[in-house]
Amino acid sequence: MAKVRSFYYLVDRLDCNIAADIRSALDTISGIESINMRLTENIIEVHSLRDVEEQLTIACIVAGTTLRTKVKKRDISV
Asked: DSSP per residue over 38-67, as a string?
């Protein structure tokens, strides 16, 4: 059985409108358990069974922003 893991992504110009667009796009993807948007840090935290970087890249393009990079948890201030 697959284990749910956390993945962190840095997104340019993340605001309420862009976050809503990205969330609605990611809600259609199977395997995602939850999505946490950190607007002040421009970080999207995804709890899923697998890495969704490719799908998130497409969602960012549709929302009008850019996925900068994947971030490790230890590089994020808690």
From this structure: ETTTTEEEEEESS--HHHHHHHHHHHT--E
